[in-house]
Amino acid sequence: AKADFVTDGTVNTLDRDCFVEHFGQSLQTWTANGLWTTTTDANGAYAFTDLVPGGYIVREHQQAGWAQTFPAAPGEHGPITVAAGQTVSDKDFGNRSLTANLTVTKTDGLASTLPGRELTYTIVVRNVGEIPAEATVVTDTLPPPATYQHSTLDGVNAPATVTTNAAGDQLQWSLGTLAAGAERTLLVTVKLDDIF
What we know:
This protein is mostly beta strands. The protein contains no helices and 19 strands. Strands 2, 3, 6, 8, 10 and 11 form a six-stranded mixed beta sheet that branches. It starts with a strand and ends with a strand. The model is unreliable at 1-25 (pLDDT under 50).
């Protein structure tokens, strides 16, 4: 992340006790900038040196895939008044990585069925996370006595890739990228063997 030092025209030194942290782990090579630019080191520490006395605000520029957790809104330290020869420390930033979080539900709405009949069930995939889930793939295994017939994805024909093994037919659909908050619905039709 970047941090801006916004000044009234004057400053001194912020020491290496300033960190960008991720739940106690240091984040390396994050950048802080403004009138002065600095980047976190291998330990997540940053420092502004050779600053003149005066007032400053330190802000970080967020990197993609991260959310700032500290300090509280507006997410900056300051105003910080720095006197000649003074070192200011403990102006830390906290961050957490954003995640995709998928939930999958599978329902058929039936209590029972009969041999030789077709059965259609629904698979709903939701991204309840904060960022897109890329390269999303749904896999479902049909135990014998069920045989895959056809399927749709959000109402459009979407044949599954079918692999048959001793456990039954393994069905697979590629959903691509699933945006945060989005959901996709598969309707899958199978046929039950005449005798099971």
